[in-house]
Amino acid sequence: MVAQKDIDLNTPLDAQRPSTLIKSPLTPELAKAAVTLHGDRYKQSQANLSRSIIWHPYFVALYSLIFPSVLAYYLWDYISISDNLVELYIIASRNKKDFIFHVLMAAPTITGIFGIFGFMAYILADEVGTITDRYVAQKYCDFTFGFDVKEFAQDPKTPLLKNGKNSELVIYRDQPIAIATLKPDWEQSTPENFIVNITGIHVRKVFNQVGFDQLLIEWAVLRSRELYQEYLIRNSSKVKNGTVFVVTDAYSFDKHQEKTLLDCGFKLLSSSFELNPFNPSLKSYQKVLHKLLDIRRDTFGLLLTTERDDVELLKESDLLEKEQLRKRH
């Protein structure tokens, strides 16, 4: 195997490295980093889903009912002898230690109830989290890239090297921090309608607000158009008014990514309550819960025509400059 570039998402970037920002297609030495970044997308999605469930309006409504009820139960000795809140305050002030003791007695129960809700969120979110654990073992990564990644990483002159152009990595301080990968749908594509699936876009969490995801989406649009032109040449087709249909998935609880797709001109096409795109295994009770909590995997699409100059969409993008290396101070 080709020596791989080390990547550790749990440690900050080396501040001693030059602050250079470059782009690169997928190469054998970047294979491990690319797989790690794509796998991390689902780990971050798991955290986003857990947070979304815990603070879902239904759950918040339950908190507002259950927690005061528990507190009232433990303070009933005070509440029962008080005619109003002022009297309750006076009685509590005269018996501060005992009042605080009763409040503290309620704390374990409240914590336990909150823990139950947290456990429910963990169980539901684990459906997404397990994708990361199985990403390599069950070859989900091969589906993302469209070829055998392990074979790709073995040989610096592999015949699969040309497929690396369908992935774009952003590297900062000599560390890959963002990636986008697309895969043409050769089976359903025709000279009149070329279909491309963006199988993964991910930005390291600390750089989420920088805007790399939008730049990578713009790259994917341009690359899709290039692939279409190659497809027409390979098939000796002279279609003049063909279309390029770019599709991708995003989770409903990842508001940032969905907003970015909409800002880039994508439209919502369909939704599914099945969160695992690699191995659908949605159980009936999961479907009910997903529907209740509005947990979805949304499919977005963008339709391009060959008459439209897609480069105009990208002319402001730093990643499309001829110079691949620039300094950031």
TrEMBL record:
Report TM segments: 53-76, 99-125
Question: One of this protein's Pfam families, by short name?
Answer: Pho86
State the source organism's domain of life: Eukaryota
- Know the name of this protein? Pho86 endoplasmic reticulum protein
Q: Which organism is it from?
A: Candida orthopsilosis (strain 90-125)
Q: Which InterPro entries match?
A: Pho86
Keywords, comma-separated and alphabetical: Membrane, Transmembrane, Transmembrane helix
